[in-house]
Design brief:
elongated; about 10% helix; single chain; mainly beta; 28 strands; SH3 type barrels; 11-stranded mixed beta sheet; OB fold (Dihydrolipoamide Acetyltransferase, E2P); 3 domains; Glucose Oxidase, domain 1
């Protein structure tokens, strides 16, 4: 039996996250050091960009003649705006360096220019304790708190105080509900359908938005937004699932870290919101690859009960006939309002 998908919506777990530099660099954090979400834990220099510059074309001279106007030799360092070749003619045509860097090779009227790589700074991303390190590459940070995983993110990450912007999981966020009290916070809402809502949040500005769903037509605007945005239930008009909404609602006013990284099944990464909490009681690392069993909480991910959360009441042996006439492995799920429903195994997501 193939296992259904799994999403962590947990009130108290141990969260361990590896924070890695894109290239070897310098790790500034120390083992057992306490860090905050915005703390610098490493830095490196990204790969430099290279430019092929047609000097002869820009100077308006034949390639063989252009070589005599080169100002620098291969390997020479130059600054932004320095003259690489020229001047030529009564118009005093010149070719300038597009940025700081160095000349790699030149000849036959062209040159290859290497720009200085941009500096990259790695932040902790969430508060916690450094429990592991890999020299020049990564840091592992551990914290205890609530964890809510999502299914789509716009690639940004932010930290701030958690605030609710809608009273229920199926309420649409409108511009009228956005006020100064949401500034610099992580906002939680049922769903978003209008682009002017994203613009209003950006103008405020907020630091993040955790929402149930939005139309796919808003993806370009979401990716351009300067705040982290994550969807718990996907695209369309779905409300936020009740498990996630209730957990977030009980933690209003607490600091939260929203990492809206894209979902990557191969790397095992997905968008998530972490709420650090006092270590009260017993917390464990969330289990992975959990099998469906009676009593386990699940979310239905397809119509007609998409977004509904319930518990597995029974697991019929073999396959069952669906109203469509298809035969499929199914579960009997007990929902709060609809009661007992028969759902294909492929249509459920285990909430752990």
């Amino acid at each position: 039996m193939d296992l259904p998908t799994q999403t962590h919506v947990a009130p108290l777990v141990i969260v361990r996250r590896r924070r890695a530099l894109p290239l070897p660099g310098t790790i500034t954090a120390r083992l057992n050091q306490k860090v905050q979400a915005g703390d610098l834990i490493g830095r490196t220099t990204l790969y430099p960009k290279h430019f092929l510059i047609d000097v002869a074309y820009h100077l308006g001279v034949p390639p063989k003649k252009a070589d005599q106007y080169f100002r620098y030799k291969a390997g020479d360092a130059v600054s932004h705006g320095d003259i690489l070749a020229g001047p030529v003619g009564w118009m005093r045509k010149v070719v300038r360096a597009p940025t700081g860097g160095r000349v790699i090779v030149q000849g036959e009227g062209r040159l290859v220019f290497e720009a200085v790589g941009e500096p990259f700074e790695l932040r902790a991303g969430l508060p916690g304790v450094v429990v592991g390190m890999e020299a020049e590459r990564s840091v592992t940070i551990e914290t205890i708190g609530a964890l809510v995983e999502a299914v789509w993110g716009n690639g940004r990450e932010e930290a701030g105080v958690l605030r609710m912007a809608t009273p229920s999981a199926d309420t649409e966020l409108t511009p009228e509900a956005i006020d100064i009290g949401l500034r610099s916070t992580i906002v939680v809402a049922g769903r978003v359908t209008r682009p002017d809502v994203l613009q209003a949040l950006a103008n405020l500005p907020v630091r993040g938005l955790m929402v149930g769903s939005m139309p796919a037509t808003l993806v370009p605007a979401a990716r351009e937004a300067h705040f982290a945005l994550a969807l718990t239930d996907g695209f369309g008009m779905r409300p936020m699932n009740s498990a996630a909404f209730e957990l977030l609602a009980t933690n209003v006013g607490r600091d939260a870290s929203l990492n809206a990284q894209p979902l990557n099944a191969w790397l095992g990464s997905r968008p998530e919101l972490v709420i650090p909490l006092p270590a009260v009681g017993t917390a464990d690392v969330p289990a992975e690859g959990v099998a469906p069993v009676v009593g386990r909480r699940v979310r239905i991910i397809r119509a007609p009960y998409a977004g509904k959360v319930g518990t597995i009441a029974s697991m019929p042996h073999g396959v069952a006939a669906l109203p469509s006439g298809l035969l499929a492995a199914c579960l009997e799920v007990e929902l709060t309002e609809e009661g007992m429903v028969l759902v294909p195994l492929a249509n459920v997501d285990i909430l752990e």
